[in-house]
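To: structure desk
From: M.T.
Subject: fold request, one chain
Message: Could you run this one when you get a chance? Sequence is below, nothing fancy, just the single chain.
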Amino acid sequence: MFMEEAGLFKGIASHIINEMAGIATEAVLPGGYVVFNKDDVADYLYILEEGEIHITFPGRRSPTIQITDSGNMFGWSALVEPNKYTAKAECVKESKVLQIDGDRLMRVFENHPAVGLLVMKRLAGIISARLVAIDQERVA
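Reply: Done. Structure tokens follow.
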């Protein structure tokens, strides 16, 4: 199953992965499709299966974050209050994604707090690494 290979969920027990898979849907999105815009209500977390997604920050001179590796996550705002996307996500080419309902995923975490804590720690690490990369690109 693809979900258990995604970095955010790697090593999680299969019965919990199955719970999460039950709230995920697979979508094939065309090139040019805007997955979400900055300030939209953040309902879904996304895991890239294949394709390419660019994350941009409209109105700012920040670099583009390119999501190209299978298993990479975007749309983390679905798991963090105030649940509004902080950037724009657009498919550069046709892309296949897993779309996971953020509210329902948080309920899974409430039922399995140790897993929830692990995933949120990983999420914080991903966000931190992206912020460091953006900062380094600004300096370069």
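Reply (cont.): The helical segments are 14-21, 102-111, 113-139. Let me know if you need anything else for the meeting.
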